[in-house]
Amino acid sequence: MDTDWQSYTHWFAVVLFSGTLSYFVSLSSMGLARRSGMITQPGARQSHDVATPTGGGLGLVFSVVVTSLLLQLFTPLPLFWSVNVLPGIILLATIGWFDDCRHVSFRLRLMVQLTVSLWLIGFSGLQFSPGGMAWFLGIIAALMWMMNLYNFMDGSNGMAGFQGVFAGSVLAVLFYTGGESTWALLSLVVAAACAGFLPLNFPSARVFMGDSASVPLGFIFGSFLYYGIQTGVINPLTGILIMSVFVVDASLTLSARVFRREQWYTAHRQHVYQRLISHGWSHGNVMLTYQIINVILVLPAILLAELYPQYGMVTAGATFVLLGACWYLTNRRLGLRATAKLT
Predict the structure, then answer these.
(1) Shared domain check, 241 and 225
(2) Were both Cys, which of 76, 187, 227, 302 would link to 172 (CB 3.0–4.6 Å)?
(3) Domain ranges, residue 81
(4) Which pLDDT belongs to residue 342?
């Protein structure tokens, strides 16, 4: 980046602009959602009991895209961001908006996710590690899973927004210490956009994020991790730890549904955070619990993995075992089969 844009004053201005723009455009999106009839009604699949507009996260995505484009006027942004990441964000947000407006088929959504993943990797210009096609397919699967798990975990007030602030902030620190200040600023732009959306979604939800933002956010963080890992700035084990609370809840819940021969691709209310809400926990307490886990378990694990990379596998393994144990014990206490299959 140009020297002028290394100052903390400029960074603060960019972050403030991103958060403010996100708030006001999300507020406008909420009004548009009401006028368009994009209202999520309470039901067996929902963790809310009040009809609420959805698709408000479009303002969040709009802020990320516009802020980065405006930055391009003052300082060169990485070609990888402009060519590989931004088109995917815009396409996913567009499909997500239509899905929030009216149902978009599961197959079409998967095809779009596959397309943006192939575009991201196929034209990245980065060299793959040994492993060939298996490595390539593994990255595609990981990116698509990141998009979907972020969407799955967007079902409680503030859950996806606060995770976005956490992940964006951690990635900013990792990129900055790794000498990638431009990517650090882009990470902060995303974190600020998530923070700007939160007043409309937490502690009470005036609007839901919707597929308009949850799927693009999963793609954004997957893109950050892909770039950081491929360039050696981010340790792969550190990368998977950043989203570990979402990864564990979404992955184990899906695995349990497959094991019970349920229709795993249908809407349900079996994630731990949803089950806690159905058992009387407030949305605020659930969100706070997940972020406390991030602070007291995940963040120290990331720090240890960065300071002592030789023990990274042990650190990551122990963290996932602890999170998995928490998932299992919580489900056992609540009753593993307490939530009926939803069709």
Answers:
(1) no
(2) 187
(3) 1-234
(4) 33
Residues 45 and 173 in one domain: yes
Based on the fold, state whether residues 87 and 212 are members of the same structural domain.
Answer: yes
CA distances from 126 to 2, 169, 226, 231, 236 (A): 24, 25, 10, 8, 16
Give me 134's structure tokens. 């298996």
How far is 59 from 33, CA to CA, in rounded Å?
A: 12
Give the predicted TM-score (pTM) of the model.
Answer: 0.89
Q: Say whether both 316 and 171 belong to one domain.
A: no
- Tokens representing residue 111 in the block: 């095809």
- Token pair recorded at residue 271: 């994630």
- Domain boundary, last residue among 171, 206, 234: 234
The string of pLDDT tens digits covering residues 131-173 is: 567 778 888 999 999 999 898 888 788 899 999 999 999 999 9
**For the stretch 308-343, what's the b/e string if a residue is b when 16 or more beta carbons lie within 10 angstroms of its beta carbon?**
eeeebeebbeebbebbeebbeebbeeeeeeebeeee
Do 194 and 212 lie in one domain? The reply is: yes
Contact 84, 123 (CB under 8 A): yes
Q: Assess whether 214 and 240 both reside in one domain.
A: no
User: What would the mean pLDDT of 317-326 be, rounded to a whole number?
Assistant: 95
pLDDT digits (tens, 9 = 90+) for 33-53: 777 777 776 654 555 666 677
Q: CA 59, CA 213: separation in Å to the nearest integer?
A: 8
- Residue 227 shares a structural domain with residue 246: no
